[in-house]
């Protein structure tokens, strides 16, 4: 199957189709998200938290991202794949931003990139101009967690809400094909969505966005970090995994695993010949 394209995702705004986006970080999660029929797979820098165990996303490097993108690209079949540009991969210069965006395509096998905030619209423009589709990301952008003083909902005051709306329009002008709206009031997300021609994809931003995204491990309750208020648990996969692991450990301990069917066996003549040799050697 060929992957969806950025123009196809963009067109979903006009045709009022809901977009389902999910994060993935390796081959199996890429396969599962594809089989589930997701429109977009995001290889999020959230991998710093849910895969690498950091307390935020700031330590994630280009090397981490490319490593995980390669694995997801091998498993993804159908959804548009988006690589998340990590902290300091696009802030330093436009040239470096374009170079790093190019690595996501050439080395990581991604179809598009995402970057946070509206402070770097020149980078967005330059990356898009080089032929790489760019997704924007506004609101509670995790790479600014230190500037926000924690993972706090954004856009709650009139000024902040006005600024977010202006930023969304700036990003659209710069050439993004969609914008993630994270951790903002539902009413603001609805107004921003109404003001744009490109789709919005919400996470903790209410139901009026064109689409929704959740982190793979959050929606399946795979342990690692505390789930946020905006997450719904769609399956208790973490508990199922833990139960399975506990059963394995006790089956090994009490000798119930492996059984006869889990091993390959020598033919009777080979077994008997070998047994004779072993007996001779031990005498
Ligand atoms: O890194 C990530 O997973 C994200 C999504 C939560 C939008 O940016």
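Sequence proposed for the structure above (283 residues):
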């Amino acid at each position: 199957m060929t992957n969806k394209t950025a123009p196809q995702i963009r067109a979903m705004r006009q045709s009022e189709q809901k977009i389902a986006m999910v994060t993935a970080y390796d081959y199996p999660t890429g396969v599962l998200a594809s089989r589930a029929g997701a429109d977009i797979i995001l290889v999020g820098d959230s991998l710093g938290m849910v895969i690498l165990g950091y307390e935020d996303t700031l330590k994630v490097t280009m090397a981490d991202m490319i490593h995980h993108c390669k694995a997801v690209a091998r498993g993804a079949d159908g959804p548009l794949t988006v690589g998340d540009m990590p902290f300091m991969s696009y802030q330093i210069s436009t040239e470096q931003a374009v170079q790093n965006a190019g690595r996501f395509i050439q080395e990581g096998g991604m179809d598009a990139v995402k970057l946070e905030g509206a402070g770097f619209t020149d980078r967005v423009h330059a990356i898009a101009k080089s032929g790489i589709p760019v997704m924007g990301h506004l609101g509670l952008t995790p790479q600014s967690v230190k500037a926000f003083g924690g993972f706090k909902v954004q856009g709650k005051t009139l000024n902040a809400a006005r600024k977010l709306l202006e930023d969304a329009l700036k990003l659209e002008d710069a050439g993004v094909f969609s914008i993630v709206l994270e951790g903002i009031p539902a009413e603001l997300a609805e107004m921003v969505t109404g003001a744009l021609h490109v789709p919005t994809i919400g996470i903790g931003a209410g139901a009026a966005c064109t689409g929704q995204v959740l982190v793979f491990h959050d929606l399946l309750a795979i342990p690692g970090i505390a789930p946020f208020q905006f997450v719904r648990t769609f399956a208790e996969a973490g508990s199922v995994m833990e139960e399975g692991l506990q059963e394995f450990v006790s089956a090994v301990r009490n000798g119930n695993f492996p059984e006869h069917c889990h091993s390959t066996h020598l033919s009777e003549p080979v077994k008997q010949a070998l047994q004779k040799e072993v007996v001779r050697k031990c005498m």
